[in-house]
UniProtKB/TrEMBL annotation, chains A, B:
Protein name stated in the entry: Recombination protein RecR
PROSITE patterns: RECR, TOPRIM
SMART domains: TOPRIM (SM00493)
Taxonomic superkingdom: Bacteria
Protein family according to the UniProt entry: Belongs to the RecR family.
Biological processes annotated in GO: DNA recombination; DNA repair
Positions of the Toprim domain: 81-176
Keyword tags: DNA damage, DNA recombination, DNA repair, Metal-binding, Zinc, Zinc-finger
A GO molecular function held by the record: DNA binding
Length: 201, 201
C-alpha cells in the first residue's frame, strides 16, 4: 500500500532537495496539496526556468542567467586590480554588503574535497590561473571559509598565484566584533592571539 | 545587492515548503543548481502535475488523482460496515500496513483547530454525517491522534454519530508493544493504567 501514484511521485521528487528525508518530503507534499497549491505552482515554474537558464558567469563563475553577472558587467569593476576568491555566491553577497570591496570576485562553488571527488578543475582553477596570468591583478584576497577544507583550498590557490606576479592575502580571522571573549571558541581565540597586531593608543 | 533575479526567485519560491527558512532555501537552490539539475527538473514537473491534478476522493477525502481512491473503488470495501476516521493520508497507510483492517476510511486532512480557523466544514464533517446517516455502517473507529486536538476532534465526531445508529469506538492507547516502561512518557503510562484490562493467564 502506497499513496496514489502522483502523490508518491511528488514525495519522491521532493527528496532531491538537500536535507529532506522521507518524512519531511511527505509533510511538505501534504502541506502544498492541502494549504498552498498556488505556492507549489509558482515553485514548479521557478524551478523549471531556473534549472533551464541559470548558468555560470563566464568570468567569475557566479550563478547568472546572463553570460556575465552584474558585477563582472560593471565598467568600474572591469578595471579592478584586486580579485577576491570565495567559496559560494552567498559569500559574494556578504562581502558586497560591507560596502568595503570594489574589486572582482572569483566564485569557486565549493572547496577542494578529494573524498567527494572535487578537484581543482571542478572549482574552475584553470580559469583562475588564466585570470592571474593576464597581468590585470596586483592582489588576490583569499576569502575561503576558515575550515579545514577552506584552508587547504586557500593554500592550493596561493601556490597557483606564486607563478604570476600577484601578491596574495588572506582575510583576517579572530574574535567577531561585538562578540564576548568567553563565548568565542578556542580555535578562533588561538587565531586571534597568533594574529595579534601592534596596538598604538 | 541580491542574487541574480532568477536565482533569487528560486530561493524565494522554495520558502513555500513547510519548515524551509531563508538559509535552507538558499542551500537547496545552490545544491540543485550545482549538483542536481536533473532532480530539480523532475521536481518541477512532478509539482506542476501534482498541483494541477491531485484532488480529494469524493467518498473518503484522501488525496487521489481519480474521482474515487483505490480503496474506495475496491468492491469488497464498498460493502464494509466499519468506517475508520483518521487525520492524515499517512495514517491510512500505517493502518493498511497492519493488514488488520478491511473497512472504509474517512480522512479528515487535519483536526479541529479554532485558532487556525479550522472548523467542522474544513474537515468534511458534513460529508461524514451523510455517510453515517446512510445506514451502511455499524461501527465507527476513531483513530485521530492521541493529542489534545485529536481528542477534541474525536469527541466532536462521536457526538455526530450519536444521532445515527452507529456504535463508536476509539483505538487503544497505552505502552507501545516492545517498549520499555521506564522510557514511556507519563501521559501514555496514565492512559495505559486507566485502560487496563482483566488478565487471565
Ligand atoms: Zn561574474
Ligand atoms: Zn477514497
Amino acid at each position: 500500500m502506497k499513496f496514489s501514484p502522483l502523490v508518491q511521485e511528488l514525495i519522491d521528487s521532493l527528496r532531491c532537495l538537500s536535507g529532506v528525508g522521507a518524512k519531511t518530503a511527505q509533510r511538505m507534499a501534504f502541506h502544498l496539496l492541502e494549504r498552498n497549491r498556488h505556492g507549489g505552482m509558482k515553485l514548479s515554474d521557478a524551478l523549471g526556468r531556473a534549472m533551464d537558464s541559470i548558468g555560470h558567469c563566464q568570468k567569475c563563475r557566479n550563478f547568472t542567467e546572463q553570460d556575465l553577472c552584474d558585477i563582472c558587467q560593471s565598467p568600474k569593476r572591469q578595471l579592478a586590480e584586486i580579485i577576491c576568491i570565495v567559496e559560494s555566491p552567498a559569500d559574494v553577497i556578504a562581502i558586497e554588503q560591507t560596502g568595503e570591496f570594489t574589486g572582482q570576485y572569483f566564485v569557486l562553488m565549493g572547496h577542494l574535497s578529494p573524498i567527494d571527488g572535487i578537484g581543482p578543475d571542478d572549482l574552475g582553477l584553470d580559469t583562475l590561473a588564466k585570470h592571474l596570468a593576464s597581468g590585470q591583478y596586483k592582489e588576490m584576497i583569499l576569502a575561503t571559509n576558515p575550515t579545514v577544507e577552506g584552508e587547504a583550498t586557500a593554500h592550493y590557490i596561493a601556490d597557483l598565484a606564486r607563478e604570476s606576479q600577484v601578491s596574495v592575502s588572506r582575510i583576517a580571522h579572530g574574535v567577531p566584533v561585538g562578540g564576548e571573549l568567553e563565548y568565542v571558541d578556542g580555535n578562533t581565540l588561538s587565531h586571534a592571539l597568533s594574529g595579534r597586531k601592534n596596538y598604538s593608543a
